[in-house]
TrEMBL record:
The keyword Membrane does not apply. One of its GO terms (molecular function) is oxidoreductase activity. The keyword Ribosomal protein does not apply. Belongs to the asaB hydroxylase/desaturase family. This is CmcJ-like methyltransferase. Keywords: Methyltransferase, Transferase. It comes from Lasiosphaeria ovina. GO terms for biological process: methylation.
Length: 277
């Protein structure tokens, strides 16, 4: 067994600033017409130690908020990056089949979206730039809060909210690199057991045509962060963003700078699904 490749880096938490006692955190993917800033985030850059996952089988979705599976798919990096729309449904079908096999408790699984990321060599940068794909998300977050999950379901499945809102469901993300071995800006996941309730701050996720809500993290030295070194495309992270009860383990996650990486810029694919029990 090879030696674990832990590393120390920094991560941009949301500060425990008094501002958030009087104003809700928000971020927008556009510049508001009224000239307001597109976000009110006050960051608190903190060091973290990221542990290499040596025994993936030790991590469970319902305990840690994430798990790892071995699963090959037919999706190639070239097709994902240059011909995404033509391969999307086949890939989604593969992911849904994988989840049905691994989690028989789910009676129905429906994909909400499919995202391909290709890190630009300039990332991270504060300068505006035109890029071909979405970039890594470097702020610790869960993609949806409990209320934000309902907003996402209403957006992804128009007219179905009355049916879905009374169901018992999880909103999951299935994430993997498209090329490997990858150590460049790897996905780091936080053990749910190390997160306290007052570490979590709700954030309005603003788009021009709709409103969402996700969850961000305040710093806490108790947080336990993990990643998988030399991750290959068949190494698949599955993690929970939220659920209908608001009581299950979920996963705060972020792309983190790995000072030891010698990999090419990270390319990754993820599918977000609603999984109904």
């Amino acid at each position: 067994m090879s030696k674990p490749k832990d590393f120390t880096t920094t991560i941009q938490y949301i500060s425990r600033d008094p501002l958030y006692q009087v104003e809700k955190a928000y971020s927008a993917d556009f510049v508001p017409d009224n000239g307001e800033t597109p976000l009110n985030h006050i960051f608190d850059l903190q060091p973290i130690h990221v542990k290499d996952i040596v025994s993936p089988q030790e991590f469970e979705l319902d305990v840690h908020g994430f798990c790892l599976l071995k699963a090959k798919t037919m999706l190639s990096a070239e097709d994902a990056l240059t011909n995404q729309s033509s391969v999307e449904m086949d890939y989604i079908n593969e992911i849904e089949a994988l989840l049905y096999l691994k989690f028989p408790e789910y009676k129905r699984i429906e994909a909400m979206n499919f995202i391909v990321r290709n890190r630009d060599a300039r990332y991270p940068s504060t300068e505006e730039a035109v890029v071909t794909h979405e970039q890594p998300a470097g702020i610790p977050h869960a993609d949806f809060s409990r209320e934000g999950g309902l907003m996402q379901l209403d957006y992804a499945f128009p007219g179905q909210l009355e049916y879905l809102k009374d169901k018992d469901y999880d909103l999951l993300n299935v994430w993997r690199p498209l090329t490997g071995p990858n150590d460049d800006w790897p996905l780091a996941v936080c053990d749910w057991r190390s997160v306290q309730e007052d570490d979590i701050i709700l954030n309005d996720d603003l788009h021009r045509t709709r409103l969402g809500e996700n969850s961000l993290l305040h710093p806490n030295p108790a947080h336990k962060w993990y990643y998988l070194s030399s991750q290959m495309p068949e190494d698949v992270f599955i993690f929970r963003n939220t659920d209908s009860t608001g009581k299950r383990a979920r996963c705060f996650h972020a792309a983190v700078y790995n000072p030891e990486s010698r990999s090419e810029p990270r390319r990754s694919a993820e599918v977000r699904v609603v999984a109904i029990r």
